[in-house]
């Protein structure tokens, strides 16, 4: 898939596998036909590197995060920007839609170099929660399948589990000896997997005591 003019930083499939979204240092988000490789849309609006992109569960929307400090939500059919989420005070490194047992993704989570994790209403663009606890850049965030929990990883070497309703930190998982680069929750929300720059992948249960 050729079209970006600088390094590509993030890619994701739509749930049905028919489309791909990509984000780039060229400041654009692009949507591609996964069968033909043809570019369908170019989503312009970010004013710095795009660092993270993903589709909503139903494939109708795209969320993107950027070093311009904004999270943006786009209509994946028209390419029109629907919302600009303003609150982070440094680069946004990671974004994700909630699933909430539904297909439209009612909430978005973002992680930033400002050391915060934030949860937003994906319909209104309003910030619902700011999750504080990390002491360095937040590099990766994800929702549990039911949307009730958030996992985050950071350059402070920790993985943290949060209650996505109250914003309360449930668990802090230590063990990495270098930056955490990526995190994910299992389908049932009971296990978390994380990777770091010290070449290790760790998996552990994330049940609260």
UniProtKB/TrEMBL annotation:
InterPro entries: WD40/YVTN_repeat-like_dom_sf, WD40_PAC1, WD40_repeat_CS, WD40_repeat_dom_sf, WD40_rpt
Transmembrane segments: none
SUPFAM superfamilies reported in the protein's UniProt record: WD40 repeat-like (SSF50978)
Signal sequence interval, chain numbering: none
Chain positions of WD repeats: 1-42, 43-84, 85-130, 131-172
Keyword presence, Repeat: yes
Keyword Repeat: yes
Designated name of the protein: WD40-repeat-containing domain protein
């Amino acid at each position: 898939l050729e079209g970006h003019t600088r390094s590509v930083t993030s890619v994701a499939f739509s749930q049905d596998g028919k489309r791909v979204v990509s984000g780039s240092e060229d400041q654009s988000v692009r949507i591609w036909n996964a069968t033909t490789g043809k570019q369908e849309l170019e989503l312009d609006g970010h004013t710095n590197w795009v660092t993270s992109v993903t589709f909503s569960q139903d494939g109708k929307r795209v969320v993107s995060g950027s070093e311009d400090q904004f999270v943006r939500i786009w209509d994946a059919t028209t390419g029109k920007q629907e919302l600009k989420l303003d609150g982070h005070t440094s680069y946004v490194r990671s974004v994700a839609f909630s699933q909430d047992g539904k297909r439209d993704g009612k909430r978005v989570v973002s992680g930033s170099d400002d050391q915060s994790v934030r949860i937003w209403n994906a319909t209104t663009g309003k910030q619902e929660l700011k999750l504080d606890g990390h002491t360095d850049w937040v590099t990766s965030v994800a929702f549990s399948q039911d949307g009730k929990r958030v996992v985050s990883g950071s350059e402070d070497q920790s993985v943290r589990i949060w209650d996505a309703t109250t914003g309360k930190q449930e668990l802090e998982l230590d063990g990495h000896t270098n930056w955490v680069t990526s995190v994910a929750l299992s389908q049932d929300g009971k296990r978390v997997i994380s990777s770091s720059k010290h070449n290790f992948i760790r998996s552990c249960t994330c049940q609260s005591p």
